[in-house]
Amino acid sequence: MRAAVLVGEDLAGSIAAGTGARLCAGPHSPALARGDWIPWPRLRWTWRRARLIAPPGGVTSSPDLPAAASSVLRAEDIPALLGAAYRAFECALQALRGAEDRAGPLLPAFVLAAAEAANGRDAVAAAGSFPGPGAVLAEAVTSLAVTDVADQVAELSLALSTRLRGAETRGGGSACAAAAAYAGRMHELLAPPG
Amino acid sequence: MAAGGRAAQSPAVFGDFWRRADALASPPPYPDPPVGAEQVRHITLAVGRAGAVMCRYAGDIAAAGPGVRNGLWSHAIARAHAATTLITGAPRQETAPAPTFPPGSFAARVDGYAAALTYGRDLLHTHLTTTPDGRRRALSDWAPVIGSAPVNRALLAGLADHAQAIAGQLAELRLAGSADSETIAAWHRLQGAAGQLRELSAAVQAAQWQAPVLPEHRRLLEAIPVNVTPAAQAPSPEASVSDLCAGISSTAQRANQARRQLAARARWSPELTADSMRYAAASYVVTSFNAETVYLALAERARQLGYHTLVPSLDAAAAHADDNRRAWLAVAHVWDHMATDSRGYLSRPAAIEARNLAQWTGRLAYADPDWTPARRPSHAIRDPASLAPGPAELAEVVGAMHYATDSLARAARTELRTVRTLAAAGRLYVTTRSLPELKYDVRRAYANAPRERVADALAIYADTAGISRAALRPAAEAAAAVGAPSWVLSAADQATAGLVIAPRGRLEQHLLDLGVRDAELLRQGVELDETAQQILSEAHRSRSIRPQPDAEVTPEPDAEVTAAEVGPPAAAIDEPEIDANLEISPG
């Protein structure tokens, strides 16, 4: 197809569901401006490449990760910690899944961290003193940028890792050790650079 | 699968022995001198050995998959079997002690030919094993290729060429003047063997007029490698693009093998955990993401180098890699709330190989030589000019990405089969929190997977299988256009095209072809397909299936696999049920 397309809202809506718009205004496409005409094949390449290299952006709705981290840190005994950890891993999973479409180059870290979160949750559920997953409650939802999701999940996973590792020696058993290892790997994947 | 272009340390391929056999069967540039009693005895021994090994090949070909025996090929195979059996005393001679034949003599050449053929056959048999009940079981992805009609016909056509060449040399043998009566009788028996070999050749020639053997099928036969798992490697920061390409090809092969082995144990293996499935799915997402990045860079480089005809297929490959990423992401979501009945933290080779493939492709895609999937300061894509400075490097990278794409397609097919087996064995569970009807507080974290959740999971895997298979086409086109060493993947795919097990059942596929997208109708279709599959499995188990020799038997998806791997019918999983005895123990 040799037709040219008009760069603008229609393009963003029809092709990229948001990422196209970022392309037009993003730092990696300085040659493109709203209203510019560019050949379709070139646009396709430019848009795709920009999506892969552009910094993650956009806002995504996420569960309240700081609250989940706080309940992990505040848990007073092993059953309470396991219950809080189960819900925290679930929150992390939900937040990562919610943000992965906008994660750009962070996608590999997000997807692998989500697998670790699900594994961590299952490891917690295997602990002898796990009180049960509890009912699904309506949880507070906040709007976060993708990098904020990464930062907050990294903080949460650090809290999980620290508390669960401590619980291992206080009767939590190998399930806590395994869950702590999963949380540790989540942190490795998502910890901010530097 | 690997082979194709061979580096110095590549494993042996069938062609190594086949070409040697070909050379030894061909007449030498000098005439053989008249033979005496001892030479006749030597030649008889050597021809007997050659006949015996040719007979075994003919037996293998006769037992190969459907389609080999169509039309005149059926007669050719029968003729080959009869002729090689009739060659004088073949079975008895084979057990005689091996004398040392004079180097360069006709007997030495024929004996060497028999040895080369034997080694070649041994190589082919590394891909197969025979079960105690006499059935062949595949040990690698090459097994269907070895059983395919094109490869078996190429094999028989090659044997016929050899038979013709050996028969010609036997016919030209002259006895020395003073031969005794025993030698003369033995010489006559050799001439009889020559006649049998000529008949074999003629029968195959006739079959070739009807359905000729194509040169690419001979090439494919010769490219079949010995079944060995390449050594595991980790990409070093100093790895060149060429090293990374080699690493991707061998890691793809290791991943294919690990998955295949795990799938064969899916019914009972404690290694088959949600952890494994999650790691694998997440790694396939990353590999697809990296593949898209590499294909886009290759398309850009092709434009820079002026290979404009190559650009559309590379662009299409990138677009399909993006589709692959989405499809595998959907698979990853399936496992967010699904688990199996076991948990293993240590042994998950299939998942580890999948992750290694993601790592290798990432090192190729990104400029950072220490790239890992983790969040990092830089995600700069490798400069297209450094990825493929010239046409040779372009071909190498295209070939490596063809291997990666092929591995993703195989993964989807294998994992679909694995999940079906897990479901049939009642090994799938879901988190109770994910069940909409269980919003109240329950102590148990898991329940048996409801039927609709299993059907949804299978539908997602089937979609992924279709999408990842579609991604193979542009990847193969690009590889063919640049003459990449991965040509062998396309050739093998074409050779087994008639045998490919459809990822969907027939009814489900038919409904989809008719444009039906109603989830309930599709679910009913899946159920009917599963019922049909169970009936076929029962038939296979009861050995009541006896296809007519000339009949075209189209394998029902997974019928034989199910028969082999699924024992008694699984418990009904209609309703979510809290399993009071379920303990998923760590470690």
Describe the 3D structure.
The complex is a heterodimer of chains A (194) and B (587). With 194 residues, chain A is mainly alpha-helical. Chain A has seven helices and four strands, in the order βααβαβαααβα. Chain A folds into two domains: 50 residues, no CATH class; 132 residues. In chain A, strands 1-2 form a two-stranded antiparallel ribbon. In chain A, helix 5 packs antiparallel against helix 6. The radius of gyration of chain A is 20 Å and the shape is globular. Chain B is an all-alpha fold. Chain B folds into two domains: 206 residues; 325 residues, no CATH class. Chain B is built from 20 helices and five strands. In chain B, strands 3-4-5 form a three-stranded antiparallel beta sheet, with no helix packed on it. Chain B has a two-stranded antiparallel ribbon with strand order 1-2. The chains are: A mainly alpha (194), B mainly alpha (587). Chains A and B meet through helix 3, helix 5, helix 6 and helix 7 of A and helix 11 and helix 12 of B.
Quick rundown:
The complex is a heterodimer of chains A (194) and B (587). Chain A has 194 residues and is mainly alpha-helical.
Sheet with the most strands: spatial strand order of chain A: 1-2
* Largest beta-sheet characterization of chain A: 2 strands, antiparallel
Number of helical segments with 4 or more residues of chain B: 20
Helix proportion of chain A: 55-70%
Tags for this model:
A: 194 residues; 2 domains; two-stranded antiparallel sheet; 7 helices; B: 587 residues; mainly alpha; 3-stranded antiparallel sheet; 61% helix
Describe the SSE topology.
The complex is a heterodimer of chains A (about 190) and B (about 575).
Chain A: E1 4-6, H1 9-16, H2 19-25, E2 37-39, H3 40-53, E3 59-63, H4 65-74, H5 78-99, H6 107-125, E4 141-145, H7 146-190
Antiparallel strand pairs in A: 1-2, 3-4
Helix pairs in contact in A: 1-2, 4-5, 4-7, 5-6, 5-7, 6-7
Chain B: H1 14-25, H2 37-62, H3 72-86, H4 90-94, H5 106-125, E1 128-130, E2 136-138, H6 143-146, H7 149-171, H8 181-210, H9 215-223, H10 241-264, H11 274-305, H12 311-334, E3 338-340, H13 349-365, H14 384-387, H15 391-424, E4 428-431, E5 446-448, H16 451-482, H17 487-495, H18 506-513, H19 519-541, H20 559-565
Antiparallel strand pairs in B: 1-2, 3-4, 4-5
